[in-house]
């Protein structure tokens, strides 16, 4: 079989999900496309219809990785998160066509080398469009491609069971996602801005607000719920698989959340999506949710000079979330559907 590989083993969940547009492009020349990704991203990429099989790079010895790749007999591969390990693996596996990043010491391992636009100063092209430069190097393209997520039957049952447990109807609740990777890593994540926004959403639309998050986010999410002072603001932290969250988001009135992997999952399943970009270091044009019904809330907080989300000392922009602008974005997104 004429099979290609998407090697996207790096970054966050959003990086891997957005990279699946490359799989769509590869289908122009290849019968099937597999993905090699991080262990934590596997369950999400298994929901992507353009990907046949998903394997993980769990840091096993490089010779074992090379042997596994060689046995699958790929005709081509595209490495979207280039590292010395990834370059050595695909070269060692003797994959005939190897596309990867230029301007790196290991770039010679690739048969086709692509200069990433962001290195040339591009801050406005969406990351999906930048990644599509890789398959374009070998004559594959997917104009206007967006990531797709298709929840499985078990995911649909999980979402349905949760709606039944909470007595929720389709299109009659919001999902609010208040955390990203640094929220739990640094222990500094303010909750008052999210509590205020959750309460405002509930009061404005008279619909329950469900706060999503992973098990690691449970303490933060439950603190937000308590601070909201509203019994119709509820925690879902740790209760859903990523596929069940996708199904629940698809059937929500809207998904509202900080820019993170969950936002991209919601967009990929077709949910109405409001992306919140609170940091001055964010690039909303680059990481906007890719879906028909979307809105963006850009940073308006005067951050300290040089602040980055990984090193910020107080996350004052999170504490001071601009709730009126979030509500305005939601209202604008829903306006055509208002009854």
UniProtKB/TrEMBL annotation:
Annotated InterPro entries: Glyco_trans_9, LPS_LOS_Heptosyltrfase
BP GO annotations:
lipopolysaccharide core region biosynthetic process
SUPFAM superfamilies to which the protein is assigned, alphabetical = UDP-Glycosyltransferase/glycogen phosphorylase
Q: Does the keyword Transport apply?
A: no
One short Pfam name that applies is Glyco_transf_9
Keywords of the record: Glycosyltransferase, Transferase
Q: Name one GO cellular component term.
A: cytosol
Q: Give the matching PANTHER family.
A: LIPOPOLYSACCHARIDE 1,2-N-ACETYLGLUCOSAMINETRANSFERASE-RELATED, TETRAACYLDISACCHARIDE 4'-KINASE-RELATED
Protein's recorded name: Uncharacterized protein
Q: Which organism is it from?
A: mine drainage metagenome
